[in-house]
Amino acid sequence: MACSLPLHAPLSSSPRVLSYLPTPRTLPLFRRGPRVPLHRPPSPPRALPDVAAGAVAGIRDALADAFLTSPPTWRTAAASNLVVFVAGSPVLLSGLSASGFAAAYLLGTLTWRGFGAPGFLVVVAYFVVGTAVTKLRIRQKEALGVAEKRGGRRGPGSVIGSSAAGCVCALLSIYHAGGTASSELWRLGFVASFCTKLSDTVSSEIGKAFGRTTYLVTTLKVVPRGTEGAISIEGTIAGILAAVFLSGVGYLLGQVDVLQVAVCVLASQIANYVESYIGATLQDKEGFEWLNNDIVNVLNISIGAILALLTQQLLILLLRKQEGHAGHA
């Protein structure tokens, strides 16, 4: 049986059919995408302003002038010393208290003014070696009760006690005491005073750290380490080597000649013996309570400097006398 359908059947408007049709949406005129930040080329670093650049250049030139000025002035000496102290403050504060640091700055300025950078470097060598041996076996020394106070950090009294004679020589050189001919003498006394103090420090600290047997200098009886006026073989040898070292530094820096190196070593050892004798007979004795370590140190370095000056003068007289005999012959 045939079945016929109309050729033009109307479309059904049933909701079920319309549900399959896409829902019309309103589209924007321009399609939006994700925002992309603009990448601008980095601007070149700004140069220092002219004023700041000029200030930096001025400071640099001033420091260069301070280091190179010869003879140094008080201003250049203070500036040069300040730069060294700021740069070396970690090392300096390891061996100095805050007040000792301030006292050392005054010493450094005076030294630079009197003897320039070479004289200043002599003091630097003294400080480095002296601090190193002071801290050597510091725990052992503390256990024995013979270590320096404050963990080996020196206060202003110790700084002054170690440098008083050198400061006097610097002042005499600055103000030309005795005329130009005496400037060499004051330089010799300066080096001899620090050779004496370094020899004393090294002999004492090495003796306390490594000395097997210590003897009282007056009787040669065996006494405990750290006893005032005590000496040891190890400490004595180390002290002589320390004096040779520092006087050698002075020679390399043009502060003393070869003969004066021997003068410094000899004077330092005689002064140290006298210092040990004073410590054994007078220090800590009734009526001499005022004679503390700092005062004994001043006496020690003063004796070393004076002995060096007298020995130098004696040698000059002997040489002149010898030249006079040679002339008459």
UniProtKB/TrEMBL annotation:
Segments forming a coiled coil: none
Residues that span the membrane, as ranges: 82-107, 119-138, 159-178, 230-253, 258-278, 298-319
Subcellular location: Membrane
Membrane topology, from the record: Multi-pass membrane protein
Entry keyword Acetylation: no
Keywords carried by this UniProt record: Membrane, Transmembrane, Transmembrane helix
Name listed for the protein in its UniProt record: Uncharacterized protein
The UniProt record lists the keyword Transmembrane: yes
Database matches in PANTHER family: TRANSMEMBRANE PROTEIN 19
Lineage: Eukaryota, Viridiplantae, Streptophyta, Embryophyta, Tracheophyta
